[in-house]
Backbone:
């Protein structure tokens, strides 16, 4: 514990000079010896408060991540999103669109309504729920991918 010497105690004085309802003007009087130290003290205090604010946000995020009620809410929201995506995808397929066209139309529909969604998300949701038909044009992993053309020179291996 730090002992305070009563002869070295610095007297501070402050007063509210003006107040207009939204802002208050506060005047702080410090001894001349302390005037050069005050800005660094306030800066240090600001950094400390900023760090505490960040730690509070992290603690809240950890609490939400482990809270069973919040976990169930997130699962329910995910189920609702999936059902919306699947219903739109099914409507496109019923209208005669191919799998790839239905993915694009579903993505475009949600983007036009202000939701950020990618074709990959639509495809994964549809695939996880068994919406793709088996086709002989798909690769052995059942993924829809485009074929890329490789340069013949890049595939040749030169012997030493």
Residues:
């Amino acid at each position: 514990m730090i002992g305070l010497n009563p002869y070295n105690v610095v007297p501070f004085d402050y007063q509210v000079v003006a107040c207009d309802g939204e802002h208050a003007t506060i005047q702080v009087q410090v001894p001349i010896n302390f005037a050069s130290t005050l800005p660094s003290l306030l800066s240090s205090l600001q950094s400390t408060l900023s760090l505490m604010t960040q730690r509070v946000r992290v603690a809240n995020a950890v609490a939400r991540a482990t809270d069973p009620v919040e976990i169930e809410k997130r699962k329910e929201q995910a189920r609702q999103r999936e059902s919306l995506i699947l219903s739109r995808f099914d409507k496109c397929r019923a209208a005669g669109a191919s799998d790839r066209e239905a993915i694009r139309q579903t993505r475009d529909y949600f983007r036009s309504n202000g939701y950020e969604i990618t074709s990959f998300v639509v495809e994964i949701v549809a695939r996880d729920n068994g919406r793709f038909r088996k086709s002989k044009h798909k690769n052995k992993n059942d993924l829809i991918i485009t074929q890329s053309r490789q340069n013949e020179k890049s595939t040749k291996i030169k012997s030493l």
Q: What stands out?
A: Confidence is low (pLDDT under 50) at residues 147-160. Helices lie at 32-35, 38-66, 68-94, 99-112, 119-128, 152-155. Residues 36-66 form one domain.
